């Protein structure tokens, strides 16, 4: 289909042809022609955020909960620079986004014009790719290419910078042409390498699947195949923060999350395994701990769509470059055709060993009748919401790690958290993006009070669009994670890690036109949570929790998996017996 | 479980400082990258090297296919084998990159650089400069009574050697193009 139209109309037409139903954005001078076209149509819903960072995180929430790319529209200059944190967040977590920025007209570029910024220059290192379109004739083609690049191979954010004169000028619109791009990352894995992996699986005595966000990004089919493979082999499975939900938390082989605040059984199994099968994870430093002590005795296989992830930090023995779903399909096919063999007796012994690690009950904590322990709040939240059609977002800090430990995810795309960048302020806008995509679902942002304040303006968006997001704030009046590090690593010098002059969250909710609930007594917690769930509208839930609780287990930076701290008691013991203050 | 021996208050054990115990032999590699000649593509390549802390010893770029709008970038870099592999994988990830070739691995290859060298001197030194230039097959492309500009092509070490010899003979300025390279044979 080719037609003459203005650049601004092309933008909207291309979005429609790409199947976009929602755009998160904020207008300004350099995008007014596009906003005009949005005004003149009804197919695409525009959600007006309160800050461009919020638009990008909302689009991330939308993308992660639907598997479709998120779309953002912002103006030039400050609109674009405000989007930078969100772009970096999406790049590190491999989230597909198409971000459209307005730019000053081409004939003013380079003149320090009003609201001019070198947007493609600024965003080059924080996008998968970006384009400055100087010719309306190239605009439609670039729009379609942008969707292709954002979603093909390892997904990521892309940005198109569109000068205002290019939006006004007329050109020929081209519809999407599949396979027009030279960018076609291979999805099939090498069969020889896959066969090598299968052979290793057949003889492994202490195998483990270590899964990551790549399984989620590969689509729901990949999670299905993972479940089939795990259950058929009887091998235990752990996951990074990014991969939670790919294998169900209620599944028999589930070890829980691994890494710095991961479960004891998961980290010990990673350390002692003889075959590690990394599926769509990237040996991040929060996972590996001390590199020279990382899983010293294992053969390592690594399935990843991005060749640069392979051997980046950990040398692997069996690299397989390909899309998780495609590769797992071949793994299953070959493993079955060779007779579904495993070293069952040894694997059973391994499971016994793992059971002894599970028996340590690493998530145990000291309860309290006087104050709400954050872990208890999450246990109750889990119990009271797990049968709902539930989506969880988080902010960044202790509450995020406790959420990962205490909430169970049965399906992929239900858990949205800032993993790679660790962006405080992610959760509120992300919850809005999720709720826009799933109007009837129960969407909860598990937040810390400090993180929550970073993008709290988005409550206005929630109220305006009647998005009943629940802001579940574990309020410890502390930058809890910072405080924890200062306690353990900086001699208890709590430099600027407390939240003073906090707002009255109930009044704040009311000021926004939302509902506020405050709870401080453990006895009232269940009723308060039920009230939050049942309220048909956005809620700010101010849960006053124990202020000095530390998040355990913990592998301090630079330590090995088997040097994990299990709890306060252990920290105390070490400190007392060592004389010198050890953690 | 073994006890931890981290001193409270210590700040020296961030995971960011950790390096894997891969081989630490430094290798010099010549890599060519075929890219779409679109605006910003060179900035992407250079940004990758600076952003990830890789070395660039030499970099040249020019359009080599005017109809297909393809440019060839030739990069000489040094790093451990793992870093070299990362550099190639990271280059391959850049969307407008069509092809990455490690000539050092796929070799043998021809490597050439052009230099123009200004030598200001008189008397015996001027005569000696001229004599050495002949040995190196450098051409005189400009001359005054007390100066020469020599043009020289060759592998980088030949140019290094020439520059070293010319330094005591009055070398005042040198401009080098950086390396262009291709695999030998068909
Ligand atoms: C934008 C940003 N700034 C700073 C940090 C560093 N940081 C990590 S966790 C944290 C404290 C978070 O406090 P809060 O949201 O109250 O969560 P808590 O740890 O108390 O649960 C800080 C400051 C960050 N991750 N992101
Ligand atoms: Mg807090």
Please explain how this structure is put together.
- The complex is a heterodimer of chains A (583) and B (186).
- Chain A is of the alpha/beta class and 583 residues long.
- Helices cover 39% and strands 17% of the residues of chain A.
- Chain A has 24 helices and 20 strands.
- In chain A, helix 13 links the parallel strand 12 (275-279) and strand 13 (299-304).
- In chain A, helix 3 (52-66) packs across helix 18 (427-437).
- The radius of gyration of chain A is 25 Å and the shape is globular.
- The termini of chain A are far apart.
- Mean pLDDT of chain A is 95; it is low at 572-583.
- With 186 residues, chain B is an alpha+beta fold.
- Chain B contains five helices and nine strands; from the N terminus they run βαββαβαβαββαββ.
- In chain B, strands 5, 6, 7, 8 and 9 form a five-stranded antiparallel sheet that branches.
- Chain B is elongated.
- Chain A binds chain B through residues 120-121, 124-125, 128-130, 132, 149, 154, 182-183, 285-286, 288-292, 306-308, 310-315, 488-493, 556-559, 562-566, 574-575, 578, 580-583, and chain B through 1-11, 13-22, 36, 39-40, 43-44, 47, 51, 82, 85-86, 89-90, 92-96, 98.
- Thiamine diphosphate binds at residues 395-399, 422-425, 448-451, 474, 476, 478-482 of chain A.
List keywords for this structure.
heterodimer, A: 583 residues, alpha/beta, 6-stranded parallel β-sheet, 17% strand, globular, disordered C terminus, B: 186 residues, alpha+beta, Alpha-Beta Plaits, 5-stranded antiparallel β-sheet, 4-stranded antiparallel β-sheet, 28% helix, elongated, disordered N terminus, binds thiamine diphosphate, binds magnesium ion
* Beta-strand segment tally of chain A: 20
The CATH architecture category of the largest domain in chain B equals 2-Layer Sandwich
- Global Rg of chain A: 25 Å
- Based on secondary structure, the structural category of chain B is alpha+beta
What small molecules are bound in this structure? thiamine diphosphate, magnesium ion
Q: Which regions of chain B contain 5 or more consecutive residues with pLDDT less than 50?
A: 1-21
CATH superfamily of the largest domain in chain B: ACT domain
Distance between the termini of chain A: 66 Å
The number of E-state strands of chain B comes to 9
Quaternary = heterodimer
Content of β-strand of chain B = 35-45%
Low-confidence stretches of chain A: 572-583
What is the total domain count of chain B? 2
pLDDT averaged residue by residue of chain A:
95
Strand order of the largest sheet of chain A: 3-2-4-5-7-6
Strand content of chain A: 15-25%
What overall form of chain B do the CA principal axes indicate? elongated
**Count of helices of chain B?**
5
